[in-house]
Amino acid sequence: MQTGSCIVIPAYQPNKLLPDYVRALRNVTDSPIIVVDDGSDPACRPWFEQSEAVPGVTLLRHEQNRGKGAALKTAFIWIRRELPQTTCVVTADCDGQHSVEDVMRVIEACHANPGALVLGCRTFGPETPKRSLRGNRFTSRVMKILYNIDLEDTQTGLRGIPACMLGPLCTLRGERYEYELNMLILARREIIPMVVVPIQTIYFNNNAGSHYRTVADSLRVAGQMFRGLGQYGLSSTLSAVIDVFLYAVFVKWIMNALPQSARILLGGLAARLISSVVNYTMNRRLPYVQTKSVRQTAGRYYALWFVQMICSVFGAWLLALLGLGELLSKWIVDLLLAVASYQVQLRWVFAKRGELN
Predict the structure, then answer these.
(1) pTM reported for the whole predicted model
(2) Which pick of 51, 85, 97, 130 has the fewest CB atoms within 10 Å?
(3) Which residue has the higher pLDDT, 158 or 310?
(4) 253/332 same-domain check
């Protein structure tokens, strides 16, 4: 008996594999099974009715298709209300990609790692459909760069979710496939361990049964992945505008009587100090932030700020000596420093205290 666990299967336009899959799961576990009909056509109703007829299965319905993320949230809300003693929720796809054996292995891993997000990760080889292979490789690399989440299979639908995540997941952004990426970002931000369980790589008919909309869903996924970078870019741009404006005021007017070296040094210092307050305040609200505590992050931020300021001042000074001009030199140097600063803030400044990620 898998005490405290339940299984969620979101389904849209399923075939006869769904009731067969549900029955196979019931043969090996007495965990509650929740099937969510995400607005499927009436022709699919028999498959849902057969699934619901299996003992211990609950069927939830959407009147119209709302997306995988919405289906998962519907199930999570129901579980929190009707099964409050649940300790972990295992999500599985309805198309047969997740074997019964792998589902059971994920359940076991959940009980062995309480409080962790367990991910059933596939290994992709030459037999993997090219569309799926390219999509997974792209998202895996981007998630590593932008969020320091190192997973080979970021799009896996076989997940063991601890009860502590269910509340936040009920209101998490995303209604379709982007929801599962946001789940990973949430886990990293809340410092929830991620445990990987290797699973079989199963595709039927070159994954033709997938309801992933190549253009629309890819744009949604990309939008969520780059959302944090966009917010960082906005924060950096606003800070840079303030910085350069104040720098120009100091260099061209307030300190115009000083030698060039003194103008660049003192003007850069004053401008960067003022703009840093704006930048720090905005960056504490970015998606990758694990801690917003001023006590824990202010010292790290201003250590980075000091190094960045020194590099900015002397970098701009060196380029100015090459004849690029004071303002152009500063723009070039600060752009390069902003790229480096993103990674340092992600992995150290706003990371878990005492841990270099």
Answers:
(1) 0.81
(2) 85
(3) 158
(4) yes
